[in-house]
Amino acid sequence: MLVAVLASTFALPLSLTGASVALPEIGRDLDADLAGVQWVVNGYNATFASCMLAAGALADLFGRRRLYATGVAVFAGAGLLAAGTDDILLLNLLRALAGVGAAAAATSAGALLAATFRGGAQARAFSVFGMAIGAGLAFGPSIAGVLIDVLGWRAVFAVPALAGVAVLLLVPWLPESRQPYAGRIDWGGTVTFTAALLLLIFGFVQGPEYGWDDPRIVAAFAATVAFFVAFVRVERSHPEPMFDLTLLANPRFVGICLAAATTVAVLVPLLVYLPSYLTTVIGLTPSAAGATLILLTAPTVVLPLIAGALTRWVSASTVIVVAVVAVALGAAWATVIAPTSGLADLAGPLLAIGLGIGLSIGLLDALAIGSVPPHRAATGAAVINTARLAGETVAIAVVGAVLASTTAGRLADPGFTSGLRTVLWAMAGAAALSALTVAVLVRRSSRRSVTVAG
């Protein structure tokens, strides 16, 4: 079970980071504009994030192994088809379908770990789980760069899909577990949340192309607000909501979700757009750009295990706050980037951001899942992953909108450099504010616990 979960967990972020390195090649080969190639990443992330909560509820109800196998199969099938398409619209639709499968697989994987391991073994399992996520992020750009140089951009989708096929061969040996009582699927919440997130992403991605005052963009943002309001109303009235709004009354849980969303909102947009800067402005090959990004992602391979060990002497909350601060400092430091930047210029800021990400991956998942009853483990995993994925998806779209506006949709200098620096300063400020907020929320939670214990 652990082998299967780790293999699929590695493949899911590999599909994201690999696609980001391939964006310039995809645009040239399929004659697609910036908005079109943005959906290669945004379509995958948007459905991944919006389907996470529904996938958690379905896994609890129908069985974690069953939904895990279904998700991996959908992810693999969509990836293989994407590798063979010559149409950007079809590619984007297949990427969105792959995101649905990834949501089912990722949520069920976390629940399978929680159901199989207990105590210290569970903590170690989630540390390795975080390391697998980090490995997919760390080696995704470099693997993708080599694949693109040798086989072309299509291999970026085919290789993770083939890894999914291999995982399916292990499914018969996986343990099955499910919620011990029959429940109801919150279709109303699923539909309203998905519609709100997709419309929000549509507004940011297409805004620079259509114009921010275009009726379609204005309508998309207005509909986003309406669907989010509807989502809250549906969740309050549903007997078994997919998102338990009462969790928002728990400062510790809110802090965990905020930290998760903040760290990936810095990391993932850089993984998506920094390869394009390195290749089109600095002049690196795809493989060299991927190798450079290892500075950003390599710490996520080993630090999840170290973070777990640190919690023996330092509280997990302290580790999380330190991690978010490191991300903020790294983003501010990265504003030194320029067309003449070399490895020495980028090493410090990229490693600082990677340090923060590595300390938080895995630890945040364990804290979130540990805050819900065991029979709702998949739903608990879905909530933290939804916060993470929604944060990174919106961040990718916002960063893309800024860069599209500053580069006239061509991701070329000089606008690319100024736009990227603006984005990095915004990331640094947002992460610093988030670190302060998380520290306050955790402190309030600790005081409440002491009061209750007294």
UniProtKB/TrEMBL annotation:
Membrane protein topology class: Multi-pass membrane protein
Annotated ranges, domain Major facilitator superfamily (MFS) profile: 1-446
Keyword Transcription listed: no
CDD domains named in the record: MFS_MMR_MDR_like (cd17321)
Protein name: MFS transporter
GO-annotated molecular function: transmembrane transporter activity
UniProt-listed InterPro entries: MFS, MFS_dom, MFS_trans_sf, Sugar_transporter_CS
Cited Pfam families: MFS_1
Record keyword Transmembrane present: yes
Entry superkingdom: Bacteria
Membrane spanning residue stretches: 43-62, 67-84, 96-116, 128-148, 154-175, 187-205, 217-234, 254-274, 286-306, 313-334, 346-368, 389-411, 423-442
UniProtKB keywords: Membrane, Transmembrane, Transmembrane helix
A GO CC annotation given for this chain: plasma membrane
Subcellular location: Cell membrane
